[in-house]
Amino acid sequence: MSVETHQQEQWGTRIGLILAMAGNAVGLGNFLRFPVQAAQNGGGTFMIPYFVSFLVLGIPLMWIEWTIGRFGGKFGHGSLPGMFDELTDRKKPWAKYLGVLGLVTPLVVFIYYTYVVSWMLGFSFFSATGGYFGLGQVGQMRHYLYSFQNIFDSSMHGGWLALLFFILTLLFLGWVLSRGISGGIEKLALIGMPLLFIFALVLMVRVLTLPAVKASPAQGLNFIWNPHWTSLSDPKVWLAAAGQMFFTLSLGAGQIHAYASYLDAHEDVTLTGLSTAATNEFAEVVLGGTIAITAAVVFFGVSGAVSIAKGGTFDLGIVAMGVVFQGLPGPQIWGQVFGVLWFFLLFIAGITSCVALATPTISFLQEEFAWTRRRASYGVMGVALLLGLTHVVFYQHGFMSEWDYWAGTFGLVVLATIEIFLFSFGFGIDRGWEEMHHGADLRVPALFKPIMKWVTPAFLVLLFAWWGWSEAIPTFLMHGVSNPADIPYRWASRGLIVMLGLVGLWLIRVAWRRKAARAAGTGGAPGEAGPAASAR
Amino acid sequence: MQNGGLTGFAAVFMAVSMGSVTILMVWCFYRILTQPDSSGPVGGDRPEGAGGEGTPGPSREAGNL
């Protein structure tokens, strides 16, 4: 059996790499979370803290993650345990165990995020078949969505229909991932990302040319962009902007490192990294800031859009947009076509992020346990199906909310805080700066060096402390849980994350012991077991 | 139907925000596409010893400037 190692896989083209990285970053949040955040946090003035966060948090972390990833790839590592080990020159045994966050966080997010993405596939199908047409009220559409999410409610759908779409999505992901970096992930991005931009541009034009129903498209844009100057002095607005920057660039989860590890050691990371961030920002600010909220304001008015936005991402993206497509002028078929464009756009945005989320775990299994890519890909899909079933069955008990908060929100900040301290102080900012500029096509302004060393870590510590105090403690104590019957389910959900963390730690321990044994067998010292051993 | 439209400040913030991210993206892609190897394979030749099963990994100094 031939085993394709990490070092034998590479990206095919630079454009493919940029689109794959942009596909990782562009997700549901660009189209659904950003406009809501902007509208709720000062409108146009939100963009001031947003762009400041882009400069002092987003861009520096993006470059650091690319650099760590490419650096780890030189030693045959595609996941954070090995990368953190190398960053500390293999002198700090605990460093590789901190890297467990770079395995568990993306895997946990992958599992529940894939389930959500499969809903978009489902609603693409319902749009094509006209499944929800005739449910023109928000309440009716909400019932349609809730019935789909609750597999025990077959009042609007066949029971367990959500599971069918989840399995189909996992099978597709397994197929793409098993085809490798250039043959699977890159091809998906080369086809998917242009489609996503075309769909989004078509939808943007359609929304901006809508006839006024309860408001005009201009009023919809005004709702998002009208500045509220007093918000600039509100620290919550600045933290909301920093949080949005985190989510939108997919920082602190291990995917960027994994993708960058497949770069050649002499390939540029500065211009390529900036390009992926810029592509993501275009998708978010220009496309995401124009479609969903604007359409909601046109059909429901400002107060109606506010009420819908408060209901959450899915109320805006699925319920409100479902009603909008039914209310479009012209024959029903046009509503169905735009419905397919919207939901399939979200599916593409999500699926290109899913492949990135699965990559750290697949790389780890390939490198440390010599699994074939096919075996690792379908193995991860199997684990995702098994653990994802808990979300399918217990969704209505808040099972997913726990994973979304602890891994998909708080976990990202924890990991990013650790990595920036390891990079700036463990590896050393001078060494890191040189490593970043090796093969660079873009010389990063020197100003970013002190930003990376002092400002970004300080910003992250502030974010970590603020979220820890204001959100993590109340969330841990379940202060916001309205139904006490859900509490045991939520504890079980947390228990699963802890269990995955423990399994991850155990796998790291086993992998490094095997390396040490191999190194001893070839005459090397156990502490020196590393790249050559892991490549075998 | 509600009255009003896009206010001046809202239009300015929207135009500046959308314009700046668009210019940044276009500039990045212009820089990349004008590089001689933009559509070719990433990396080209691999450094000695950096690829292949059973081959030694790169030395610690290999790109670690």
User: What's the end-to-end separation of chain A, in Å?
Assistant: 14 Å
Number of strands of chain B: 0
Mean pLDDT figure of chain A: 93
The quaternary organization reads as: heterodimer
Number of strands of chain A: 0
Fraction of residues in helix of chain A: over 70%
Reported for the largest beta sheet of chain B, the result is: none
- Put simply, the count of helices of chain A is 21
**Which series of helices and strands of chain B comes N to C?**
H
- The percent of residues in helical segments of chain B reads 40-55%
The 3D shape of chain A can be described as globular
Strand content of chain A: under 5%
SSE topology sketch:
The complex is a heterodimer of chains A (536) and B (65).
Chain A: H1 14-25, H2 28-40, H3 47-74, H4 80-87, H5 93-98, H6 101-129, H7 138-149, H8 161-178, H9 181-208, H10 217-225, H11 235-248, H12 255-260, H13 270-288, H14 292-310, H15 313-326, H16 332-369, H17 373-394, H18 399-437, H19 448-476, H20 487-521, H21 531-535
Chain B: H1 8-33
Summarize the structure.
The complex is a heterodimer of chains A (536) and B (65). By secondary structure, chain A is mainly alpha-helical. Chain A contains 21 helices and no strands.
